[in-house]
């Protein structure tokens, strides 16, 4: 088990990395990510067919998802928990309708960001960057309103991709501190798991009983 000091140092290193990485790339982030963060719009379309009132995104980045969802459903409340100060600055400016907090998915509370606990918690291409994704999922289920759902879209295991591409994709993502999701991370929480073509991305939903 890691000591509190070493955890704090790890978190600070992660935050420093994110600030450095996104400090440079945040202004062209949305333009470039539409070519490889697939599945996000599929998830938006699914979400917009369901009833929910309070959505918190963990790792909202530039606020791209929050803005799209808010444009389509302005009557709902929106919040974001973000580890990177640089992304947070950007998202706050872009999404004045939302409430944000700086913090880490594994330890920072966010159930009190909105008037009541969120009935949707969204992880969109965030879990593959957090240092302890199991802990982040456990924390999210604890903070979810009864009857709510945690929804995840992220890189999967590329099982269906041509063999020579698989290693290349993994190495390229690792260079950005991204570790594609292993389905064994999700199965203790849910069996509501679907994959995109080539197992490039996964969409998973964790249902909390009412
Ligand atoms: C690849 S970006 C995805 C941004 C956005 N969700 C999207 O779909 O475009 C990952 C985001 O997660 C944030 N992040 C990484 N580790 C985190 C953590 N432990 N807790 C909260 N946010 C984190 C990063 O700073 C970044 O904004």
User: How many H/I helices?
Assistant: 8
CATH topology: Rossmann fold
- Reading off the top of the CATH hierarchy, the class is best stated as Alpha Beta
Radius of gyration: 16 Å
Ligands, deduplicated: S-adenosylmethionine
User: What is the H/E order?
Assistant: HHHEHEHEEHEHHEE
Specify the CATH architecture: 3-Layer(aba) Sandwich
Outline the biggest β-sheet: 7 strands, mixed
CATH superfamily placement: Vaccinia Virus protein VP39
Shape estimate: globular
Low-confidence stretches: none
Q: What's the mean pLDDT score?
A: 94
Helix content: 25-40%
Q: How much strand content do the residues show?
A: 15-25%
Q: From the helix content, strand content and strand pairing, which structural class follows?
A: alpha/beta
Biggest sheet: strand arrangement: 3-2-1-4-5-7-6
**What's the total number of strands?**
7
